[in-house]
Specification:
- The structure holds 2 protein chains of 2 kinds.
- Chain A is mainly beta.
- Chain A contains 5 helices and 29 strands.
- Classes of the chains: A mainly beta, B mainly alpha.
- At the A-B interface, helix 1 and helix 2 of A face helix 1, helix 2, helix 5, helix 6 and helix 8 of B.
């Protein structure tokens, strides 16, 4: 094989190892960052930039641009100081457990509970790779691996228990529900299996629904621009009808709050359509605990109508910012640690 | 008409792959892709009508990569980054090391020629240099790879 052939093969092999990442949030964050910088020098320049695609970040018209570059909301460290802590480097927060604890994946190949108050962690389980889907309740951790669900105690020592196999294609939501593990995949309804075994069974009234946060599920459409019609409590059968505001697309709703887009703006609205707010921080997707919407450098708490900002880590080459998120956690590397925002610590 | 967000969702992985072979680092690749998409977003309405927004982004990425590399080289040496090559992949690791040692422009020329399969004229247009420069850069880069490859393994021709 010639040098050229080896080179072509090597480049293809390396390229195939590129992980897919969510890049849109970084693009929007860069735009906001640059816009702020320019705004200090020349407002006219800011307006010219935003008249382009920048409106997607929820600047619906030039006058709002002025508002967007006005004083920023307070930082998360000032508004929710109890929710911010730094854990040792080498840990990746996965899920918020409680006000002081988060489930983490460590470089040592272990799932651990990190206690921010004690600054200590304890091992839950050793795994060959970080689980893609995971959930917690107060006392247990749950994750999917190899077609099975695994449940391990968080408070006491004990081995992880295997449950399954978990049936269904493309299972992408899981939760613990008392003595059951529950899961769902797009359009396939919510299924459950007892922790001590048995057969999988579809949860009553869940046909066509996807889990949001147990016990809530919704008829999430496959098309990202289509709105769902309802959010259902699978324990009580209570059904909340979703009332999209005029022109809103792609709503994703918890029982009380939704996010969606209208034109090139992102907005948060109440499920019943009674209230809405346009956001420049671009929160998207389902809320955590039916209230928090992490966005691009911002977290919006719909319950208290509070927006806090976070900085993230600076990218070396361009000066942009980056961060990552899990269920109820947002984090970024800083020095020898990982700065973590734990939304379960916000009262 | 494809909208910007749809374009990003559909093509970001392909761009990250291209970014990784250009920069050698997953983080730098993500940064490069975001920077290029930021520029694309500003002129999206014009570019989408020309039916090749991806070519436009890839051109920005190649040029931006060369520009950043110059700046970073002045500031400090490139830090150690996680390698996409596994420890037991000796030959691939050697090629990767050699590629990383090339200048950004030389590596960009090789990536465009052997990963993107572009002709020298297209590479010249993408990097904003002459075809003669493309040929000379490619020639030097391949010579460096052969010499380094021989030094490392004695197997490269």
């Amino acid at each position: 094989m010639t040098t050229e052939e080896k080179l072509a093969q090597a480049l293809r092999t390396i390229a195939d190892r590129a992980e897919n990442r969510e890049v849109l949030s970084g693009v929007i964050a860069k735009r906001r960052h640059r816009t702020r910088r320019r705004a200090t020098g020349a407002l006219a320049a800011v307006c010219a930039v935003v008249l382009g695609w920048g409106a997607l970040v929820a600047w619906p018209s030039p006058p709002v641009v002025v508002e967007a570059v006005a004083p920023r909301a307070d930082s998360v460290e000032r508004v929710w100081p109890q929710a911010v802590f730094t854990m040792p480097k080498g840990s990746t927060p996965l899920v918020a457990i409680s006000a002081k604890e988060v489930l983490v994946w460590t470089e040592r190949g272990k799932i651990e509970v990190y206690d921010a108050a004690a600054k200590r962690s304890r091992v839950v389980a050793a795994l060959s790779q970080a689980p893609r889907y995971r959930a917690v309740d107060g006392d247990r951790a749950l994750w999917l691996a190899g077609g099975y669900a695994w449940v391990a105690p968080l408070r006491t020592s004990g081995k992880a228990r295997r449950i399954g196999p978990i049936t269904g294609e493309n299972v992408d939501r899981i939760a613990l529900a008392g003595e059951y593990v529950v899961w769902s995949s797009p359009l396939d309804g919510v299924w459950r299996m007892r922790l001590d075994g048995g057969r999988p069974e579809r949860v009553a009234t869940s046909k066509g629904l996807q889990l949001v946060e147990w016990p809530w599920a919704t008829d999430e459409p496959l098309d990202v621009r289509t709105n769902p019609t309802k959010v259902v409590n699978l324990q009580t059968g209570r059904t909340i009808k979703i009332r999209p505001l005029p022109g809103v697309e792609g709503l994703r709703c918890g029982p009380t709050w939704c996010t969606g887009t209208r034109g090139e703006s992102t907005l948060v609205q109440r499920t019943d359509g009674a209230w809405s707010r346009v956001h420049r921080g671009g929160p998207r997707g389902y809320p955590f605990q039916d209230r928090f919407f992490p966005g691009f450098g911002e977290i919006y708490d719909a319950r208290t109508d509070t927006t806090v900002t976070f900085e993230g880590a600076e990218l070396e080459t361009s000066g942009g910012r980056h961060w990552s998120g899990g269920a109820g956690v947002i984090f970024w590397p800083q020095g020898d640690g990982v700065v973590t925002v734990n939304l379960a610590a916000v009262p | 008409m494809v909208e910007f967000e749809e374009f990003v969702r559909a093509r970001s992985h392909a761009l990250l792959r291209y970014g990784l072979v250009l920069t050698g680092s997953a983080d730098d690749a993500a940064d490069l892709v975001q920077e290029a998409l930021l520029k694309l977003s500003s002129s999206w309405r014009l570019v989408r009508n020309k039916n090749d927004p991806e070519g436009y982004v890839r051109t920005i990425m190649a040029r931006q990569h060369v520009s950043w590399w110059r700046r970073r080289r002045r500031e400090h040496l490139t830090a150690e980054v996680p390698s996409p090559v596994h420890e037991d992949e000796h030959e691939l690791g050697e090629i990767w090391q050699c590629l990383r040692a090339l200048s950004a422009r030389q590596r960009a020329v090789l990536v465009l020629r052997y990963y993107e399969d572009l002709a020298d004229g297209e590479i010249a247009a993408r990097l904003g240099i002459s075809q003669a420069t493309v040929r000379s850069q490619a020639s030097r880069a391949l010579a460096t790879l052969r010499v380094r490859g021989q030094a490392l393994t004695g197997r490269w021709r």
